[in-house]
Amino acid sequence: MNTKIIDGLKLSKEIRSNLKIRVDNLCSKNIVPGLAVILVGDNSASQVYVRNKIKACENTGILSIEKKYPENVNETELLKTIEELNKNSKIHGILVQLPLPSHINTYKVIKTIDPKKDVDGFHVINAGLLMIGKPMFLPCTPYGIMKLLESEKINIKGSETVVIGASNIVGKPIAMMLLQKGATVTICNSKTKDLSSHTKKADILIVATGKPNIVEGSMIKTGAILIDVGINRNENNKICGDINFDSTIGIASAITPVPGGVGPMTIAMLLTNTVEAAEKTIV
Ligand code: GUN
């Protein structure tokens, strides 16, 4: 079987170039879309993600401001910043980079963001709206995966779909989106017994665990569509996903590479949500 490598970088560039038109249109109405990014501590992966998000805003004509705090910041200060950003009419989107240090209550921090500015789609209101099939903002990584599946014309309705990972950021929301498109969805987690027995049934397999090589060729069905959300470093310090890529070639019908698959789509959808938040301010 010929395995197609799904080019997320290419699709993300198309989305970003289309967004520029919407940004220009907003600017002609004197609205410059604005995103505030809050980064706490010195987690090196988070620093890279935030830098990439800010750079992408600049390239798309979106105003961005970065608020950086040391690891030992107190929660009250963070909440105060969010409340100020909620009131700032130049800011249409607010993003708090996760994970936060353990002394901070993540739920409380995210809940303080105005749901209309919650471009990450993590607020309990947005999670609830997604659950009942009336989303306002979709979380960026699952939203990007849905766009990839759509652009590859992959049939979701009636498919056996398996999601490995049950996080609020990826696993749970992508399962909900796929369910709403008519997939039969199995969500596996770190306690799942006999992972292979599930993965072998999957027409579409989404892997979001942060564990390199958790899935390999012998665990998948011939013709499966593989979506790899992981961004890890292997023993040679090279970026790799959660799926053992080489072992799936010739068995899967398509796979997203790491890097160049889901990662760039996450950023494209963050920009999309930010532009949409700005457009919604026009009455
Ligand atoms: N940490 C890992 N993924 C994400 C994301 O999509 N948004 C935020 N804010 N933090 C993350």
TrEMBL record:
Enzyme Commission code: 1.5.1.5, 3.5.4.9
One of the record's GO cellular component terms: cytosol
GO terms for MF: methenyltetrahydrofolate cyclohydrolase activity; methylenetetrahydrofolate dehydrogenase (NADP+) activity
Catalytic activity: (6R)-5,10-methenyltetrahydrofolate + H2O = (6R)-10-formyltetrahydrofolate + H(+); (6R)-5,10-methylene-5,6,7,8-tetrahydrofolate + NADP(+) = (6R)-5,10-methenyltetrahydrofolate + NADPH
Positions bound to NADP(+): G165, A166, S167, I231
Stored CDD domains: NAD_bind_m-THF_DH_Cyclohyd
InterPro entries in UniProt: Aminoacid_DH-like_N_sf, NAD(P)-bd_dom_sf, THF_DH/CycHdrlase, THF_DH/CycHdrlase_cat_dom, THF_DH/CycHdrlase_CS, THF_DH/CycHdrlase_NAD-bd_dom
Residue ranges of domain Tetrahydrofolate dehydrogenase/cyclohydrolase NAD(P)-binding in the record: 139-280
Keywords tagged on the record: Amino-acid biosynthesis, Histidine biosynthesis, Hydrolase, Methionine biosynthesis, Multifunctional enzyme, NADP, One-carbon metabolism, Oxidoreductase, Purine biosynthesis
One Gene Ontology term from the biological process aspect of the record: L-histidine biosynthetic process
Pathway linked to the protein: One-carbon metabolism; tetrahydrofolate interconversion
Domain Tetrahydrofolate dehydrogenase/cyclohydrolase catalytic stretches: 6-120
Quaternary structure (record): Homodimer.
NCBIfam families with a match to the protein in the record: PRK10792.1, PRK14186.1, PRK14189.1
Function description: Catalyzes the oxidation of 5,10-methylenetetrahydrofolate to 5,10-methenyltetrahydrofolate and then the hydrolysis of 5,10-methenyltetrahydrofolate to 10-formyltetrahydrofolate.
Similarity remark: Belongs to the tetrahydrofolate dehydrogenase/cyclohydrolase family.
The protein, known as: Bifunctional protein FolD
The organism of origin for this protein: Candidatus Kinetoplastidibacterium crithidiae TCC036E
Gene: folD
